[in-house]
Amino acid sequence: MASTAYESDPAAGETERDFVWTLNFGPQHPATHTTLRILLKLDGERVVGADPDIGYLHSGFEKIGEHLDYNQYVAVTDRMNYISPMANNVAWHHAVETLLGIDLTPRCKYIRVIVSELARISDHLLATGATALDVGAFTFFLYAFHARERIYDIFESLCGARFTTSYTRVGGLMHDITPVTIEKIRAFLAGFPETLADMERLLNRNRIFVERTRGIGVLSKAEAVNRGASGPVARASGVTRDLRKDEPYLAYADLDFRVCCATAGDCFARYLVRMAEMRESLRIVAQAVENIPAGPINAGPGARIALPDKEQVHQSIEGLITHFELLMGNRGFTGPCDEAYGAVESPNGELGFYLVGDGSHVAYRARCRPPSFIHFALFPHLIVGHTLSDLVAVLGSLNIIAAELDR
Amino acid sequence: MTACDEVVEALRSEWSGLSVSAFRDQVRITVPRDALYGVLARLKHSHGFDFLTDITCVDYLRYAGASDRFMVVYMLTDTRGNRRITVKVPLNEPDLALPTVVPLWEAANWLEREVWDMMGIVFRGHPDLRRILLPEAFTAHPQRKDYPLQGRGERHHFPVIQRGEA
């Protein structure tokens, strides 16, 4: 092995430090995807130490959460994990509704499931696509981004925005789903499995890709639990935890899907888990979109949480009162003086918010449990011992989104 | 709920001064600081709460009816039994120190660093207690309630690096 040539010789007065050099990876680098910096200690090409330096994108999201009300803050959550903003919207309002104790209408639950799963597909497409791009498989990335565009089209017809969706509201949604959107989702469901099969054919047995990712960045099951990994990262290490199954929220209890796991815990296993989860997400969307219950999307005027529709405002006194109660600057709704934690299975892992309510319509404290932050803490553990070129494979497989990392 | 009742009973038989509350089916135990490490270690080793979901801190400076300034919150999950429990520990100035839980969960490393950075809670015995999101030269802990949202002008405290000297 070439590495033996670089080993220090204590007899000649050499120490290990003579051979270790420092490399500054980032904060601006195409393979960091966003702004983060890693101080690497290298022995030749082998990484002997990694010290992540984060905070370049810190924008005080949690502080802002103490000053914006429960509906306004959803626009900030779009900017958190901007690869799947819909999932963040759903996570935020899931936590708010847990605190306020609101029951959603069945139609709202199904629509939220659909958008969450579309967000999961779009997130996994980017995570796998960018990993492949970083290790040299450019074609795969183009397939992934082409499919992502179709999902953006669906979101655009659903809520008017492709990227920063801000689609959920306390107790409901911004708009109801329309037949045009449903047709777009059906068209996506019909076309995407073939793209997915093409993508799998491109990489699953691609020798270069497999050798670049198999056995790289191995995370054991015990380490995954001890280090707080969740989502696809934990499931690739054999942790069979998925909040959609374990703590069924929204309408997941009604839907048939499997939890995708692997046991190897390496970058290739994380890739395979994400690819398998996209198929399951397609199944969930297919079931949900054909079974959307009829009825209103917002909690009714009795809850005095969500804006009633115009018909209710014009034709019922409760609707009229609710409309003005919510829109007048000195009114708004009230919440409990208590604390609650609500989490969803976001594409990246457990995304939760710990909310402290002080009776008003603004959170007293809005703590976010960001999966990227906790997964990036794994990074030094995973990379030490591998070569510099493996760094991008590990970084891509953890799917670190710096805006969520730094908040 | 019932799954956590026996956990609470077992802890109460061992430590005094625990207060337990529940809201939206979430069980919270408030423990005194001296008992914190023991309670968390017992929850991990004897009751199966093997997963540290999150550590955070709340500043109750302007909260109506609050008796303690800070409350550090540990959220634990039992990944096999599928239960959650929250452990809270009150802290008051000037002594804002807690024992670290990194020996129990490696996940606590960065989470405790963030609490130190944002709230100024010291974790004794932490292997690497540096600021994580803010630069080392920062002096304040901005998530505290006495830190304003705008107007502190922190950027002016940092030197401007010109292109030539970078």
3D structure, described in words:
The complex is a heterodimer of chains A (407) and B (166). By secondary structure, chain A is of the alpha+beta class. Among the domains of chain A are: 205 residues, Cytochrome-c3 Hydrogenase, chain B, CATH 1.10.645; 37 residues, no CATH class. Chain A is 46% helix and 12% strand. Chain A has 17 helices and eight strands. In chain A, the strands form three sheets. In chain A, strands 1-2-3 form a three-stranded antiparallel sheet. In chain A, helix 4 packs antiparallel against helix 5 and helix 4 runs antiparallel to helix 11. Chain B has 166 residues and is an alpha/beta fold. Chain B has one domain: 2-Layer Sandwich (Beta Polymerase, domain 2). Chain B is 22% helix and 26% strand. Chain B has three helices and seven strands; from the N terminus they run αββαββββαβ. In chain B, the strands form two sheets. Chain B has a five-stranded mixed sheet with strand order 1-2-5-4-3. In chain B, strands 6-7 form a two-stranded parallel sheet. Chain B is elongated, with a radius of gyration of 18 Å. The N and C termini of chain B lie far apart (58 Å). The mean pLDDT of chain B is 87. The chains are: A alpha+beta (407), B alpha/beta (166). At the A-B interface, helix 1, helix 8, strand 6, strand 7 and strand 8 of A face strand 3 and helix 3 of B.
